Amino acid sequence: MKSSRLISILLLLQTRGRMTAAQLADELEVSVRTVYRDVESLHAAGVPLYGDAGHSGGYRLLAGHRFSRLTDLYTGEAEALFLAGIPGAAAELGLGAHFVDAQLKLRASLPTPLRDHVDRLRARFHIDAPGWYAEDTDAPFLSQVAEAVRAGRVLAARYRRWKEPTDVDRRLEPYGLVLKAGRWYLVAGPGPRTYRVDQILELDVTDDEFDIPEDFSLTDYWSAHQLAFRTRLHGGDAVVLITPEGAKRLTGDAARALAATGAPEPDGRIRATLPIESLAHAHHTFLGLGAELEVLEPVELRDLLAETVSRLAARYGVTPGPPPTPASRRP
Predict the structure, then answer these.
(1) Which of 128, 117, 72, 82 is nearest to 103 (CA)?
(2) pTM here?
(3) CB contact at 8 A, 45 and 3
(4) Is 29 left (phi over 0), alpha (psi -120 to 50) or beta?
(5) Which residues, at least 6 apart from 262, have a Cβ–Cβ distance to it below 8 Å?
(6) How far, in Å, CA of 255 to CA of 285, rounded?
(7) What is the pLDDT of residues 141-178, one digit of tens each?
(8) Distance CA 115, CA 182 (A)
(9) How far apart are CA 237 and CA 282, in angstroms?
(10) pLDDT of 322 strictly over 70
(11) Which of 107, 159, 184, 241 could in theory staple to 197 by disulfide, Cβ–Cβ 3.0 to 4.6 A?
């Protein structure tokens, strides 16, 4: 809405000072022409907004002028702020008391009707970020890492990684922390690289300071890191036949691949090409679907599953018939 966008322009200028039309357009995700029209509307409304020409120019508010009423919250904004906070995460970072105090101050600043509405909302929503089957991870140095992130101090850490040598000493420049599926990750330079906080064995916060590169963005880095991680996991593809019941149990990349490549077969099953990390990983994953899924390709994976099924049948005293070959399943 235009009215909301005009308020956003004033808040940006009030908090950041001078900004160009291009910078405002980027922040508001609109065109520069739209910003020009909005500025004209603000001028017409008598807002003391000035534009400076030149290379270092831009829009600015009259010095010392502030719009105190702009910080009043709408109902949706108040709801978002109270629901966005995750008390558990704040407590893990050593900010639990500050989180409670901040929410008390925010609640006290709301008018009575909106405060009552937010109280009802908090009683009806609870955020529990980790998945059902996520293992509990003990990260005893998390609060120290968080403090080093805030203070910009170098860490001297002994870290356990998955490959040999497993325990290594690292000098880390902590750029930021990321909470993903209930597990904390440290993004640290030089590099930067990603470290699991629960794999830190020993830690010292040094007095050394460091500078984060000006072009570094934690959000952009994490997005690229996740994309690279998924790319590394995609070691190949498997052509499968899966029942509608089995299809309901697929998640993540497999579910997306099913939606993109799935085609119905005469027997009611769905033929699809699913991404796999490795033969061993796919063997373990597909066994969990039991008879709801049949692998057609690669033959190595099909044979591996057939061998496991035969061993299970022998263990339970069942004599299975010969499995159908991939060719016999093709139309």
Answers:
(1) 82
(2) 0.57
(3) no
(4) left
(5) 247, 270, 271, 272
(6) 13
(7) 998 999 899 899 999 999 999 888 899 999 999 999 99
(8) 30
(9) 10
(10) no
(11) 184
